[in-house]
Amino acid sequence: MKNTLYLAINQNLTIMKLPDNTRENPEVISYRVIRRSIGFLGILLPFGLVAMAYLLGCRQLQPSISHYYYTMAGSLLVGVLCAVGLFLISYKGFSPLDDFATNFAGICAFGVAFLPTENSDGSVCALFKYPDSGLRSGLHYGSASLLFLTLAFISFFLFTRSKGEKTKEKYTRNVIYRVCAVLMLLFIVMVPICSKWIDPNDKHQLTFYLEAGALISFGTSWLVKGEMVLKDKPKVGNATAKT
After folding, report:
1. Residue 3 counted as domain residue
2. Do the domain assignments include residue 1?
3. Do 217 and 184 touch, CB atoms closer than 8 A?
4. Quick one: how far is CA 167 from the chain centroid?
């Protein structure tokens, strides 16, 4: 009698037990948080810089994102770049190539943060100036270029890989990843072209808008990777693409 009762209770508990695939893996959740954090920081950075500078009395749009380093919003610029760098370095991908790419991008983000661009002589919002240094400026632009080139590589080649059956959502995500990568490259390539031939005196702040576009493209790619949108629909008994 006792054995029969025990078996009945055990069977009921087994039926009531939730299947393993309905429970979120804490590691998966942490990856999503990191991806979304990187995405939000990238998208919000240009808007945050303009808003912070405006609230603190600077009504002049700076020639580029990097020139906010010399304004009252400089701490926000450095802080966000360092946060993105830390997130990228702490992010662990599915292969050594993933780790190398994100680590390298993180190091470049620190380079952009701590090797500021040249002074903006025409800015009324600049609080201070550094002695002119071609080496520092060159390292800054080199770090920024390598940062976006690496981020575009990650978005175009690494984010689009999958393990298992590709879902409809995965195909759509891959299109977004590649579009964001192409936009990042396009915006960054246009920066020196605009600075030299189209808007050499920064009258229209084209560099700022191009850099903002690159940041928004970068952030969008990581938000999609973090499954803010286009999340795979669960399929019972079938393998789905691994994002």
Report:
1. no
2. no
3. yes
4. 24
Structure tokens at 190: 């246009």
Q: Cα(63)–Cα(123) distance, rounded to whole angstroms? A: 8
Residue 169 CB partners (closer than 8 Å, separation 6+): 230, 231, 232, 233
Distances (CA, A) of 205 to 1, 30, 60, 122, 198: 84, 38, 10, 12, 11
**91, 28 contact by CB (below 8 A):** no
186-208, pLDDT tens digit by residue?
Answer: 999 999 999 889 988 778 899 99
CA-only gyration radius of the chain, Å:
23
Domain that holds residue 33: 26-225
Rounded distance between C-alpha atoms, residue 128 and residue 5, angstroms? 80
Terminal alpha carbon distance of the chain: 51
Total domains, the chain: 1
117 close to 66: Cβ distance less than 8 angstroms? yes
Asked whether residue 189 is assigned to any structural domain, the reply reads: yes
Tell me which H or E stretch contains 50.
helix 26-55
Task: Give the residue from 146, 150, 212, 155 showing the smallest Cα distance to 181.
Answer: 155
The b-or-e profile of 171-201 (16+ CB within 10 A means b, else e) is eebbebbbebbebbbebbebbeebbeeeeee
Q: How much is the pTM? A: 0.85
Percentage above 90 pLDDT, the chain: 68
pLDDT at 85 over 60: yes
Name the strand (E) or helix (H) holding 206. helix 206-225
